[in-house]
Amino acid sequence: MEFRNLGRTGMQVSPLCLGAMMFGAWGEPDHDTSIGIIHRALDAGINFIDTADVYSQGESEIIVGKALSQGRRDDVILATKFHGPMDVPMGEPGGDPNKKGNSRRWIVQEVENSLRRLGTDWIDLYQVHRHDAWTDHEETLSALTDLRTQGKIRAFGSSTYPAHEIVEAHWVSERRGLARYATEQPPYSILVRGIEKDLLPVAEQYGMGVIPWSPLAGGWLTGRYRKGQAAPESNRAKRMPGRYDLSKPGNQAKLDAADELAVLAEEAGITLVHLALAFVLQHPGVTAPIVGPRTMEQLETQLGAVDVVLTKDVLDRIDEIVPPGVTLSAADAGYVPPALSDPFLRRRRIA
Fold first, then answer.
1. Looking at the 3D structure of the chain, how many domains does it have?
2. Is residue 55 annotated as part of the catalytic site, yes or no?
3. Against a cut of 0.85, is the pTM above it?
4. Which of 62, 185, 336, 347 is the most buried (most CB within 10 A)?
5. From 55, 126, 161, 181, the catalytic residue
6. What does the DSSP assignment read for 113-161?
7. Which CATH number does the domain housing residue 334 bear?
């Protein structure tokens, strides 16, 4: 594979990043099978792996660590993330409020846990999984800068940050003399194009690498979602029903678009998977979309996308089906700011 610059870090990565979210209890529970998928991806030329502490509550990191322990660590740009709770499953109530978030206290503790699970001395890219509105940027950036100085991480980035928070974070870095976010990991696919309005231009302006998650829209662009067919069952749909419930208008719009895109792919002589991945790959602001296979077959269907170049006519047709900057379902945006999720912040106090 060709290699692309990971922002301005000096690191070079393959145009596809292997996502490890589906390795472990959330997807493929057999460790040997997952390790086999990782090794196949590396043999195919992928040198970039992304995981997170919360994926199967640390199990994904353990599997990735096992796969790289067999003499392959030095060949891989290894990325992981922190932010979510680690003492209770994601989405469950309760837990220690200090065992999550973006505070220095949690960052310096959790990086050690990730290093142990991954079986490595350093993390190439350490990412803040979500913005934390209740923690100052300076608190987070100063802790990450210290970890980089200590050699425990090589670079750090953000994930699913609003564009204005990225600008604010860069301003804090400059004013306080701190290292800055080198990358951003946003949701991006043909069905989820909201970042084209502001996030991608901002990331390009600051020279950030962009590593989009869910380029297949959580499975919607695999060909499994077609009109007149029963929606397939999946663990992902069970964990995030709001993104798959066809009674919701946004998801019905996704089904309509996915059906039209499948027809377009057939007319272009390629698979829908290749159409979807090639679309993300061809955006000049994108470094490497993350593919998250659960099976070897899924990985094999995705690898060839790096050789696909979409014509202007095909890209124009995609723009007609889903206009630039449009996200069909708000549930796919990945982040809801407190100003929307907490009614208390939207209402003037009345005595």
1. 1
2. yes
3. yes
4. 185
5. 55
6. HHHHHHT-S-EEEEEESS--TTS-HHHHHHHHHHHHHHTSEEEEEEES-
7. 3.20.20.100
